[in-house]
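I would love for you to help me understand the pair of lines that follows before we discuss the fold together.
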Amino acid sequence: MKIPRILLAAGSSGSGKTLITCGLLQALMERGVKTASFKCGPDYIDTRHHKMAAGCPSVNLDSFMMSEQHICDLYRRYTSVADYAVTEGVMGLFDGYDAMQGSSAEIARTLNIPVVLIVNAKSTAYSVAPLLYGFKNFYKEINIVGAVFNFVASETHYSFLKQACEDAGVEALGYLPK
C-alpha cells in the first residue's frame, strides 16, 4: 500500500469516532485530497455520513459477511484511485461478533492499517495512561500510532493527557474540546 492510511478506533462506542472521521474526511476534501473512505462492520448509517463529508462513496469492510480476500480486493480497488484512505472502526477496537473476530483490530491487521485511538477524555486525565498502554501492547499484530482526545475541558486538561501518552508510548495527536 503506497498511500497514507489510518483506522480511527476507540475503546467503545460513543467516543466520537464518527464525528472525528467525518471532520477529517471533510477537511481532506476541502483541501482537494481524493480520499477513500471505509467503515468496519455492517454499519450503513456511518457510511452515509462519510459520503456527505467526503463527497464520495464509503465502503463497508465486514469480516463476518466478507472473506479476507474480498476485503483486501475492495480496499485495493477503492484506494487505487485515492490519495489517502480513512477507515472508521466499529464499537471498541477489539469488539467483534466472537471476541476479536469481526473487530476493527481484525481489519487493521488484515489490511496493515495504522490505528489512531479516539479517547473519550471526559472526567479523566492521567488515568488514560494505563488504558493507552494496554491498547498499544494487547495485540502486537496492529500498530497503534497515536491518540486523539474528545471532550477535553481545557489546555491544562490536555497537558495531563499528553503526559499520559508520553508515559504510555503513544503519540498525542490533538483534541476536541467538550
Notes: The first helix runs from residue 17 to 30. Residues 99 and 106 are 10 Å apart (CA to CA). Helices lie at 17-30, 44-54, 68-79, 104-111, 128-138, 155-168. The chain has a mean pLDDT of 95.
